[in-house]
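> forwarded from #structure-qc
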């Protein structure tokens, strides 16, 4: 196995091997920042007097600060050791040095990416980071094209998903406002219900046409029309006012697979749609069941119930599974053709960066055969198809702070067509300043008008942009990192299966389904046990042995993992039956026992993203150690 050793330079390393690299960068750029301060107006005399740092108050302040910082540093030693290959719990690992260095470098400049006025440098980096990610997933990323994609950073995947919902809702309701305001534009449907069924692309076209039409009117007339349309918009009326005015319309449904992240529930609550509007589609082997979704969409169509969005997950949080995105888009196209428009958003908070492995440096998609080189099974055909289909979706969430190996506070939202985001522009029509005179960057530099946040760190944007420059989002750079993680996953699965054989005398253990990406689960049932509650108690106890316990020295924890649960809704009946049988649990185990939590099976969950899981021969002593630890634990506890 040939592991690209360039990656050895990318991280601080489990042992802090690259400490000098990070230290020299930190010192160099901190000094550089100081020179920048001094050179602003060198003729200004220093304000803080020489010798001030020897006066009692200064010294008292310094010692107080040092005491607290030492306290903080000591306390942080109880942190979870994400950097260690012994940590295979949640979706986090070591940090890429270029990102960490860029973020630390930018921090003392304190740019605020709410607008270019407070972040003249890092705003453009954020817009470019959006384009870098857009190119990775196959969106148009040429800013001179009017159909170019647009992306911005968010605090994380949760807010990017909320932004997806917010944009879809704005686009869905806008044609209704045009209709209600009787705007004489071709393409405006005759009825509110028809207007509420338009697909996002049709809404974007209407929005663009409306702005052109309005801006060609004399100023006074244009203002009047703007006022009329604005008064009819959902954003003006609120859901209550909007639906009171249009009694024939109903709150639109959001379809997501049952494996969807809980941020979708949060988002529906936050937007006032309500949890009732979020319809979780039962899964088939932890992936969206297209037949079930198709039935649900048919039912909505028959009942005239509008649909806001269908969510596909690219890398589920709990299982790393990838939904059949390509089939989802075919279904979307069929629905659009029958006048049932809705947005497709892909939640790739976890799996988004996997797409880098599927791109050549020139942006071309790689064939499945090319991607598959060096893997035992990756990529499954539906995974390849999902990546290839991404250019057809409306919007996407990708988290640089997950498989982008960057510090927290970095999620990203992208929409396929930059013209869509304009409907979110805060105050656009009141201010009534045509803002589309300039180029792509000029148009979007007032980021605060579109994003859910206001003030936000430009340092995050610097980290994302610089990292993508150092490690471009293609197969031979960023993709290498993803490949490493996927290879580690395949090694882990093989070792897990051998482990299951070894412990078979004491527990039934198995990998419940083959992973699409780099999360691997393990299910257990002690031999002879027929009760779900006891199987769950067994894994919960194992979980405690795999947790970083803040009340004890960290070194007492040998390995660090996480758990999740399996439910019938996500697995589907066939997979549930298969799994329960393999575990020697009764077929009704998920329904038979009373008590909270007894409708789900607790399982171990492993995230294989640490870049140092494999040694130079492609083997993994650390994984061997982990399975030996599990084996010892099982012997002691059964
Ligand atoms: C992590 C995750 C989220 C939420 O992202 P945060 O950055 O934690 O807010 C949403 N969806 C999926 C699929 C995720 O894995």
């Amino acid at each position: 196995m040939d592991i690209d050793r360039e990656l050895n330079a990318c991280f601080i390393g489990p042992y802090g091997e690259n400490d000098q690299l990070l230290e020299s960068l930190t010192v160099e750029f901190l000094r550089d920042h100081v020179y920048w301060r001094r050179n602003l107006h060198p003729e200004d005399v220093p304000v803080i007097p020489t010798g001030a740092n020897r006066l009692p108050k200064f010294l008292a302040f310094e010692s107080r600060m040092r005491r607290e910082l030492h306290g903080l540093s000591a306390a942080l030693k109880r942190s979870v050791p994400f950097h260690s290959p012994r940590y295979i719990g949640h979706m986090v690992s070591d940090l890429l040095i270029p990102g960490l260095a860029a973020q630390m470098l930018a921090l003392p400049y304190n740019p605020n990416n709410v607008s270019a006025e407070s972040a003249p440098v890092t705003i453009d980096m954020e817009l470019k980071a959006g384009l870098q990610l857009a190119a990775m997933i196959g969106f148009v990323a040429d800013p001179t094209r009017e159909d170019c994609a647009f992306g911005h950073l968010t605090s994380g995947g949760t807010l990017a998903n909320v932004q997806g919902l917010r944009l879809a809702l704005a686009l869905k309701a806008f044609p209704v406002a045009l209709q209600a305001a009787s705007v004489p534009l071709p393409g405006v449907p005759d009825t509110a219900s028809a207007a509420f069924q338009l697909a996002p692309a049709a809404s974007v076209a209407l929005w663009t046409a409306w702005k052109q039409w309005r801006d060609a009117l004399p100023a006074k007339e244009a203002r009047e029309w703007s006022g009329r349309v604005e008064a009819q918009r959902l954003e003006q009326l609120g859901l209550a006012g909007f639906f009171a005015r249009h009694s024939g319309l109903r709150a639109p449904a959001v379809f997501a697979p049952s494996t969807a992240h809980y941020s979708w529930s949060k988002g529906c609550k936050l937007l006032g749609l309500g949890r009732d509007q979020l319809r979780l589609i039962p899964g088939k082997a932890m992936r969206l069941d297209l037949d079930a979704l198709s039935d649900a969409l048919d039912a909505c169509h028959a009942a005239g119930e509008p649909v806001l969005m269908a969510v596909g997950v690219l890398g589920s949080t709990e299982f790393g599974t990838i939904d059949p995105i390509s089939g989802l888009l075919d279904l979307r196209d069929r629905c659009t053709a029958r006048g049932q428009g809705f947005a497709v958003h892909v939640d790739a908070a976890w799996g988004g960066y996997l797409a880098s492995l599927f791109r050549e440096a020139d942006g071309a998609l790689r064939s499945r055969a090319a991607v598959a080189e060096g893997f035992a099974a990756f990529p499954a055909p539906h995974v390849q198809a999902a990546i290839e289909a991404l250019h057809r979706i409306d919007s996407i969430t990708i988290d640089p702070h997950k498989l982008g190996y960057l510090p927290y506070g970095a999620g990203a939202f992208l929409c396929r067509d930059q013209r869509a985001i304009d409907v979110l522009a805060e105050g656009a029509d009141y201010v009534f300043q045509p803002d589309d005179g300039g180029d792509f960057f000029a148009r979007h530099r007032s980021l605060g008008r579109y994003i859910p946040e206001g003030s936000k760190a430009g340092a995050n944007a610097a980290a994302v942009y610089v990292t993508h420059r150092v490690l471009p989002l293609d197969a031979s750079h960023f993709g290498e990192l993803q490949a490493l993680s996927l290879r580690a996953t395949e090694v882990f699965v093989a070792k897990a299966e051998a482990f299951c054989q070894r412990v078979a005398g004491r527990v039934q253990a198995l990998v419940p389904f083959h992973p699409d990406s780099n999360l691997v689960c393990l299910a257990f049932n002690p031999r002879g046990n027929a009760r779900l509650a006891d199987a769950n108690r067994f894994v919960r106890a194992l979980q405690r042995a795999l947790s970083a316990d803040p009340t004890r020295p960290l070194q007492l924890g040998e390995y660090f993992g996480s758990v999740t649960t399996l439910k019938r809704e996500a697995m589907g009946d066939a997979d549930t039956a298969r799994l329960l049988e393999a575990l020697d649990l009764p077929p009704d185990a998920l329904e038979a026992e009373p008590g909270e939590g007894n409708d789900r099976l607790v399982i171990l969950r492993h995230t294989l993203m640490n870049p140092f899981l494999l040694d130079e021969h492609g083997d993994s002593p650390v994984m061997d150690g982990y399975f030996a630890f599990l084996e010892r634990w099982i012997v002691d506890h059964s």
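QC bot note: Residues 1-44+78-96+477-638 form one domain. The longest strand covers residues 519-526.
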